[in-house]
Amino acid sequence: MNRLTTSGAGYDLARFPENPRDPFQAWDAADEYLLRHLEGIDGAEPVALSGRLVIVGDRWGALSTALAEHRPAQITDSYLAQRATTANLERNGADPEAVRLLSARETPPDRIDVLLVRVPKSLALLEDQLHRLAPAVHAGTVVIGTGMVKEIHTSTLKLFERIIGPTRTSLAVKKARLIHCTPDPSLARTPSPWPYRYELPGDVGTVAGRTVINHAGIFCAERLDIGTRFFLKHLPVRSGPDRVVDLGCGNGVLGLAAALANPDAELTFVDESYQALASAEATFRANTGADAEARFVVADGLTGAEPAGADLVLCNPPFHSHQATTDATARNMFHGARTALRQGGELWVVGNRHLAYHTQLRRIFGNCTTVAGDPKFVVLRAVKR
Q1: How far apart are CA 123 and CA 154, in angstroms?
Q2: Residue 243 forms beta bridges with which residues?
Q3: Is the distance from CB of 181 to CB of 140 less than 8 angstroms?
Q4: Which of 90, 215, 360, 376 places its Cα 20 to 30 Å from the Cα of 47?
Q5: Burial 239-252 (b: 16+ CB within 10 A, else e)
Q6: What is the dihedral of CA 110, 111, 116, 117, to 10 degrees?
Q7: What is the DSSP-derived secondary structure letter of residue 62?
Q8: Residue (of 196, 180, 200, 205) closest to 314 by Cα position
Q9: Helices H / strands E in the chain, number of each
Q10: Mind listing the pLDDT tens digit of every residue in the chain (385 residues)?
Q11: Do residues 351 and 373 lie in contact, with contact meaning Cβ atoms separated by under 8 Å?
Q12: In degrees rounded to 5, what are phi and psi of residue 277?
């Protein structure tokens, strides 16, 4: 836990799930820069936060917590960000109901007077969000984006300019910038181009030629990522009423492959991204019969899942948290999978060879075998004894 200090107060903040060994803060210089600007500390006039305040993409609730007295609406694609926001509000004695939590899939407020945007890693997600928010923005809306210099590109500014109105950037402070956008009500309002559809290649087993439906913001939204492509060629062949979990499902291609290969399987798709869950469900529905059933769960991995309730877990874990490289998410997924698996149940994982997931799996499961590998990727199998 660390303390964010503003001119008027200090806030004890942590990421979620909280881990005392986590070296990363729940905010960065981009959040600080925006808060200082709102207070007028950088020489500009303070920003009046009257009316409807909307905060988009607040990563761990730092902005929402610091601005809770203004009762903002927070829009995020991340379940973990929502949990972090709630925890940080409570940690700092704020009213947990002060912030209205909305997912990226929910309808945004119909009027926005102040719009604060934490620039996401995904340009596609930013595009989709701006299209969804534009109808609520009016000529008097204050629109400010924030991000680290490495996150703000010419393409980022062009999106604001094309969808909202004239845009400029601030000087960099501690490697962070602000984006100032003036709404132009005369701009033609066009729908978001997302979701995006494509057909899978012909060499990926049971899902060859199937249609994938991707909402904005998920990993490799416009094509099949090469790790999943490799995994699809080496999935286990099983039959019978298996309970299968696609953990960190993304667009759900792995779970779909398992369902098509074994129609008797009971599928559960799990991800912390609302956009990912929507993609997985759309992809599943588009490629299975009307009677096909599956569960789609937004969650912190398998935390809270039924113990010993799964026969097989398939996982292509992420190794980034926003801009930071970390194996913390993968570790949490592996621990959760072990709890969720029955005795004799199996966890199958694909990962970049250099990530050395076999070491973690042996530590957690007591065993790990290599199913397949190439110079870049490896498919691993661990069994709950």
Answers
A1: 11
A2: 266
A3: no
A4: 90
A5: eeebbbbbbbbbbb
A6: 30
A7: H
A8: 205
A9: 10, 20
A10: 689 998 878 999 999 999 887 788 999 999 999 999 999 987 778 999 989 999 999 999 999 999 999 999 999 999 999 999 999 999 999 999 999 999 999 999 999 999 999 999 999 999 999 999 999 999 999 999 999 999 999 999 999 999 999 999 999 999 999 999 999 999 999 999 999 999 999 999 999 999 999 999 998 888 899 999 999 999 999 999 999 999 999 999 999 999 999 999 999 999 999 999 999 999 999 999 878 899 999 999 999 899 999 999 999 998 745 455 567 889 999 999 999 999 999 999 999 999 999 999 999 999 999 999 999 999 999 999 9
A11: no
A12: -60, -40
Instruction: For 23-45, give the DSSP string.
Output: ---S--HHHHHHHHHHHTTTSSP
- Interhelix angle 357-365/328-340, nearest 10 degrees: 30
> Residue length, the chain?
385
CA distance 250 to 247: 9
The Cα–Cα gap between 96 and 100 comes to: 9
Residue with tokens 């210089």: 29
Q: Looking at this protein, which amino acid is placed at residue 353?
A: R
Contact 333, 315 (CB under 8 A): yes
Angle between helices 123-133 and 154-163 (to 10 degrees): 20
Long-range contacts (CB closer than 8 Å, 24 or more residues apart) made by 362-370: 364/331, 364/334, 364/335, 364/338, 365/334, 365/338
Mode of pairing for the β-strands spanning 294-298 and 211-214: unpaired
pTM of model > 0.90? yes
d(CA 68, CA 97): 9
Separation between Cα atoms, residue 59 and residue 209, nearest integer Å: 36
Question: Given strand 294-298, what is the order of strands in its sheet?
Answer: 294-298, 266-271, 243-247, 310-315, 341-352, 377-383, 369-373
Helical segments of the chain, H only: 29-39, 62-66, 79-91, 123-133, 154-163, 226-232, 253-261, 274-287, 328-340, 357-365
Distance CA 39, CA 110 (A): 26
Cis peptide before 195 (omega within 30 of 0): yes
Comparing C-alpha atoms, which of 284, 287, 293, 333 is closest to residue 313? 333
Tokens standing for residue 210: 């199937």
